[in-house]
Amino acid sequence: MASYADSDSEDGLDYSTNPAWADVTPLPQDDGDNPLAQIAYSPDYALAMSYLRATMAANDHTPRVLNLTAEIIDMNPAHYTVWSYRFKTLISLDAAKQLDTEELTWGWRSELDWVQSIARQNQKNYQIWHHRQLIIDHLGDPTSERERTDEMFGLDSKNYHVWTYRQWLIRRFGLFDEEELAATAKLLEEDVRNNSAWNHRYFVVFGKLGAGKPAEAAVVAEIEFAKKAILTAPQNPSPWSYLKAVLRKGDIELATLQPFCESFSPILSPDEIKSSHALDILSEIYDEAGDQAKAEKASPTLYFKYHNPVAQSQRPIR
Amino acid sequence: MAAAGGSSQADEVHGQGTQELFAVPETDDSEFYQQPFEPVPAMHLSLPFIIDGLNTETSSRQLSTAQNILKSVKQTPIPNRPWIFYWCINALAALGEDVGGYNDRTVASLKPLQHKDGGFGGGNGQMPHMASVYAVVLTLAITTYHASRDLSEAERFKVYAESFGWIDRKRLLQWIRKTKLPSGGFKVNEGGEEDVRAGYCALVTLALLDFDEDELKGDASLGESPLLDGVLDYFQSCQTWEGGIGAKPHAEAHGGYAFCVLGALCLLGEPGEVLNRHMDLGRFISWLSARQYAPEGGFSGRTNKLVDGCYSAWVGGCWAFVEAGANGAESARSSVKVNVGSMWSRKALVRYTLTCCQSPRGGLRDKPGIHPDYYHSNYVLLGLSAAQHYYYYDDRGGSALGDKSPFGHGFCWRASRNVPKPSSGDGDGGGWEEGLVQREEDRVGTQHPVFNIPLGAEAQLRAWWRLARQTAPDGEAASD
C-alpha cells in the first residue's frame, strides 16, 4: 500500500478509477455566478478538493483521508481546512487504535517526520507548526522536539513560526532549563544580532516569573552576558535593549550603566563615539540627574550626525 | 485596459473564453509566487536620493494587473481567496479607481464562502477563518461604498441591504465566540493558532458589522460570557521587553502584530486614554522609531531585520495611533490641548516607496530584486497614504462615549493634507511639512487608519446598519 503521505507520486491519486473511492461522489466547488478572482486550480487540485468536500460532508475519518489530505497539503501547504481535517482524522484513528497497525503503517512518529519535511520546504507557514503543536500536545511528549526546531533554525534562525512553537514547547513542558539557555547562547554566538534569540533568552530567564521578582544572581549574570555581547558589536541594538530590560526587571537604576556607556560614547570626544544606543541611555541618565546640558549633548543626534542622516528627523520622546 | 493576447495556457486551464481570463502585461503572474527571490542589491549604493513621482505608467500597469487578477487567478493555490479580493480592491481604490462596478460580482463571489454555522471560509466548503471573515467584510465595505456614493439616500441603503443583508450576523457572532480564549485572546479558527491578528480581525469585523454592547454581552443562561472580557489585558500582555509588541505574550516584537494591537486598542477606547493605560507608550515609541532605517527610509518589521515595503502599512500605520496617544499624554500633563505633530520621517518613507517599491513592470514590492505581489501592492500604498496625510482622532461632541457600540472610537478618525511639523511640546504650531507630495497626481486616497479601507466607507456602512436595525430591531436586516 502506498505511503499515507505519498505526496511525491507524479500522477496524483486517481480518484475516479480507484475502487477505494468508488463510494464517494465528488462535490465541486461553488464559486457563485460570474465570480471575481476565480482561482484556476490545476485539474489534480480541483479534483482532490472535490473529494475532500465530499469527505468532509460525510464526516469520513477513514485511513484514505490521510492520503487525500497529504496530496492537497503538498499542493497547498497553507490550506488550514485540510490541516485541521487531517488532525481530526488522526485523532479519530488513534482513538480507534488504528494507527501503526498492519493495515495502516502510519502513526504519530511518521506523521511528525513527514511534517518536518514539509516544514523544510515551506518556511513561512503558520499551519505546519500549529499542526505539530496539536500533535505534541496530544502525545504529551516533547522528546527530540528541540532538535527538530534547531534544525529549522539552521535554515532560518529568525523564523517567527518556529520560535512561536519553541516557546509553546518550553512553556507546555516546563523546559526553562540550562539546556535552553545554552541553546540561546549558541545561536547568539553564531549571530549576535539574532534578535529572535535575544527574545527567547529573555523568555527563558524571566518568562515563567510573570510579575514576580527574578533572582539576583540571574540578573547579574544576564547583565554580564549582554555587556559581553555589546563589546563585540557596540551598535547592535539587541543587547542594549536587553540590558535595559534586565535592569528594569531587576529594579536596578539605569545610572549604574553610566561608566559602561561612557566608555563607548564619550560625549566630549564626538569622534570616538561608537554607539548611539549608549548615547541614548546616557541622555536618559543625565536627564534623570537633572543635567540638562549634558542630556542635550548626549542626544543620539550626536551619533547620527556622524553615522545616520535619515534618523536625524526622528524626534525622540520622553 | 485588457492586455492583448493573454496566456494561452491560462485559457486552456480555464476552458472558458479568451482574453477576459488572465492577461497580464509582459509576463505570467504565477511567477510572483513561485520563483525564488533574487538577491537583494545594496540599494543605498545604486539609488539616487531623489524623489521620483508615483510612476503613472507603472501604476496604471498595477491597475490593469489588479483588474485582471479580479477576473481570474491562475493556479495560485492561495487558501484564502478573500485576501485577493481585498488587496486588489483596496489598492485600486487607493489609486483613485472607482471599484463600485465590482460590487454585484463581489457579493455573488462571497456568498458561497459563508459557512452554514456562521463566518466565512477562504473558499467554498472551507472552515471559517478570521482572516477570511475580515477580508470579506472589508471588501464589501469598499465596493458598496463606491457603488452607492452618487445615489440618493434611499437608493444607497438599498445597495447596502443587498451587499450586507445576507450575512448571518447571529451565527457569525456565535462562531467568533468559539474562537475566544479564556486569556482574552482569539484564535484564527476553531482549533487554529492564537495571535493578536485574530483579535484585531475579530474586533474590526464586530465594529464594521455594528454589534452593540447587548449582543456582545451574550446570554449567561447559555453559558456565554461578555465577548470583550479580558481583551484589553490580553493585548497589553503582548508588549515585550523591547517595547514593541509580539504575536502573543512572550513572542518577539513585530511590526505587523504591533499594528493589530494598536488598531484594536483604538477601537476600544480614545487613543490618548487607552494607549497610555494599556501600554508603556514611551518604550513603544522608542521601538517604533528604531524600525525606520537609514539610508533606506523604509521600515523593518523587527530589530535587526531588513526593510520591507509591507511594513510601510504596519509600522507606518502605527504612527497615527501613537501621535494621537502622545497628544493625549501631553495634553493630560499640561492644561491645554497639545498637538505634538508628526513624529516620524514621512519624507524618508515616501522616498523609499517611490524609488524602491515600484516594480518597473507594474505593481509594488517588498524591495528591489523581489517580485511585486497583490499583498505588497496594497500595503505599500496604504503606507504611502499614511505618509502623505495626517490622520488624527477627533471625537466631535463626544459621540463615541454615548454610543451603544463599544467601538464608537473607531469612527472618529479624520484626515488632513496638512501634516503638522513636530512641535516643541509647548503647543506652538511649527507649520506644515513640505515636499511630501511633489505632484498632486502622486497622492493616493485617504484610508481609515484602523480599518484599512477608504476613509468614509466606515461611516456610510454604520449609517446603514443603524437604519436597518431600526426597522428590524432583532438585528437581522432584511434584504429585498
UniProtKB/TrEMBL annotation, chain A:
Transmembrane segments: none annotated. Its EC number is 2.5.1.58, 2.5.1.59. Keywords: Magnesium, Prenyltransferase, Repeat, Transferase. GO terms for molecular function: CAAX-protein geranylgeranyltransferase activity; protein farnesyltransferase activity. Residues 1-35 are annotated as: Disordered. The keyword Nuclease does not apply. One of its GO terms (cellular component) is protein farnesyltransferase complex. Gene3D superfamilies: Protein prenylyltransferase. InterPro entries: Prenyl_trans_a (IPR002088). Its cofactor is Mg(2+). The keyword Magnesium applies. Belongs to the protein prenyltransferase subunit alpha family. This is Protein farnesyltransferase/geranylgeranyltransferase type-1 subunit alpha. It comes from Drechslerella stenobrocha 248. The lineage of its organism: Eukaryota, Fungi, Dikarya, Ascomycota, Pezizomycotina.
UniProtKB/TrEMBL annotation, chain B:
One of its GO terms (molecular function) is metal ion binding. Its cofactor is Zn(2+). Keywords: Metal-binding, Prenyltransferase, Repeat, Transferase, Zinc. Residues 75-453 form the Prenyltransferase alpha-alpha toroid domain. Coiled coil: none annotated. One of its GO terms (cellular component) is protein farnesyltransferase complex. Belongs to the protein prenyltransferase subunit beta family. This is Prenyltransferase alpha-alpha toroid domain-containing protein.
